[in-house]
């Protein structure tokens, strides 16, 4: 554990999970009762309750790239590690509450595109947020800071987004213990770079993992990371454990790089981050209409999703990663879903 704030938040999350009903969207956890002590007065038979569930949120597009909203459970098959699973619950989700995390890149490379991000991001929030939804806003540069905690108020989020500033030197008013909303994430050596992977890791682990229902993170970034303590694989794992879909709007000011890539492999890594969690990377450059169209695509996908739940044939809660594949009948149908999950034991 590399963040003092994370340790505190992680403890609080485990306490909440221990006191509330199991989250159907989390990786499967056992709710079977502990073995009772031997007693001649007790019945000789024991009832075991097994409600281990894996829930998958996914969208389906046809060969013309249009969203498909009329499928039934008979149309789709779920494979876990290539083994077919029996779908227990199936719903076409249109109005289930939505939990959003907006992650805003405020590093030096975004100097010329930040106003565009603020304008289109605010408009998106005003369109998509309903009274039963909630969202938070995080900025990341040499620090990772919580600009607005969970709220259903699009105007409050917009105000926070419009106050975001480019930060290249590690001050910018941050202070307190490291972690989201508690000051800068510690880096090795002098403050530098863009803590993108740390931001995704923290948002998933500290803010989204204990939430229920549909969860999505939207990153507005050029995809470059420098100085994070966490790796890309850590960010993907944290998002998968939180059952959070990651969308990346790749917003790159090409002029900032002077036309030279110089080891910049942001697009490939952002595509992997998005696809492994069931989202997409959309390259919008620094084009306002493209960015608006991308936000509209995300909005449509989040409002046109299926959720399918099943009890895994492999009931072991050993923390291992299980590969997932969803196949749906139809001419040229493409399924967009997370690629796997971790079979986490209780209180892990």
TrEMBL record:
- The annotated region (Disordered) lies at 15-43
Residues forming the VWFA domain are 99-298
Q: Which domain of life is it from?
A: Bacteria
Name the InterPro entries on file. VWF_A (IPR002035), VWFA-rel_acidobac-type (IPR017802), vWFA_dom_sf (IPR036465)
Q: Cite the NCBIfam families for this sequence.
A: acidobact_VWFA (TIGR03436)
**What is this protein's name?**
von Willebrand factor, type A
